[in-house]
Design a protein that fits this description.
By secondary structure, the chain is mostly helical. 75% of the residues lie in helices and 0% in strands. The relative contact order is 0.24.
């Protein structure tokens, strides 16, 4: 990759890495599922009126929206609202690489390469260390909810892979239509109409800016740059930049929220990222590159 495009890739990772802290700050004033609905309204509207539908069956678009957007991000927002540290969330979400490899092997009969299998095992060991380390000093439920978000994202990856859909901006925009109504209805059911009404009529500047950042910055600008890079270069040259997301996420949470990871969490994170790197970085195109999902459209 040229220096210019490498710097653009780093810029996207910076946007996505900071996104976890931005979401966490916005959740201080808005219930998580309502916040999610607000974000995806901005992702879809008004672009859905100008961007052509993706070249895919509508059932695929709905399924991708259900798992990659509604499932992944609702669980992510809920985990953060339950107290999941933003920096640690950026790390645990990368477990989707491991889950994608496993689900693809079981569901669509795409066995992992030796490199992928080794990487998945190493990554799993690191993930277990992170969960154990966090559970020793804080409630483990938010981590389990984050793992659910990773699993939902991985399921969406496999659906996209099996359908042969390119994860372009059109798919991001059109699949976003799946999110707002269910998220709003769930928020009304969980939080109550009074709380939803109060939040909408008393939006703080932080909540508004957070929503704009996640929708425009993380989803639309981030994906716009990322997809252009994937169109220019082999996946193996672009995808490894994703490993910067949890590094930036943890550093941002440390600097902005005084979130200091424990030694065991750091060790587990390093082991996990080593496994993810082993599964995704190769000099040659492998199934890992084919299966490697695009980074999160937002919190990521």
């Amino acid at each position: 990759m040229s220096l210019k495009h490498s710097l653009l890739a780093v810029l996207v990772m910076l946007i996505w890495g900071l996104n976890f802290v931005v979401i966490d700050e916005g959740l201080a004033d808005v219930p998580p599922l309502l916040f999610l609905a607000m974000r995806f309204v901005l992702v879809a509207v008004p672009l859905v009126f100008f961007i052509p539908r993706p070249a895919a069956d509508w059932r695929v678009v709905v399924a991708v929206g259900t798992f990659m957007s509604l499932g992944q991000f609702s669980l992510l927002y809920i985990a953060l609202d339950l107290g999941m540290p933003a920096g640690l969330a950026s790390l645990v979400l990368q477990a989707q690489v491991i889950f994608t490899i496993v689900i693809a092997a079981v569901v669509i009969r795409e066995p992992p390469t030796r490199r992928q299998a080794v990487g998945a095992v190493i990554g799993t060991v690191g993930l277990v260390l992170v969960v154990v380390a966090h559970g020793a000093s804080a409630p483990v439920v938010p981590v389990l909810v984050m793992l659910g978000a990773s699993l939902s994202w991985a399921t969406g990856n496999v659906i996209t892979r099996q359908a042969g859909v390119q994860s372009g901006l059109s798919l991001v925009v059109w699949s976003a239509l799946v999110v707002p109504v269910p998220a709003l209805l769930l928020s009304l059911a969980v939080d109550g109409g009074h709380e939803v009404g109060r939040a909408l009529t008393h939006l703080s500047v932080v909540a508004i800016l957070s929503t704009l950042y996640t929708a425009i910055g993380a989803s639309l600008i981030g994906y716009g740059i990322w997809n252009s890079l994937l169109a220019r270069y082999p996946a193996g040259a672009v995808v490894p930049f994703v490993l910067l997301v949890p590094v930036i996420g943890i550093a941002a949470a440390w600097a902005l929220q005084d979130e200091v990871p424990t030694v065991l969490e750091v060790i587990g994170g390093i082991v996990m990222l080593a496994g993810v790197a082993a599964a995704t970085i190769s000099r040659r195109a492998t199934r890992a590159e084919q299966l490697e999902p695009s980074p999160p459209a937002g919190p990521a």
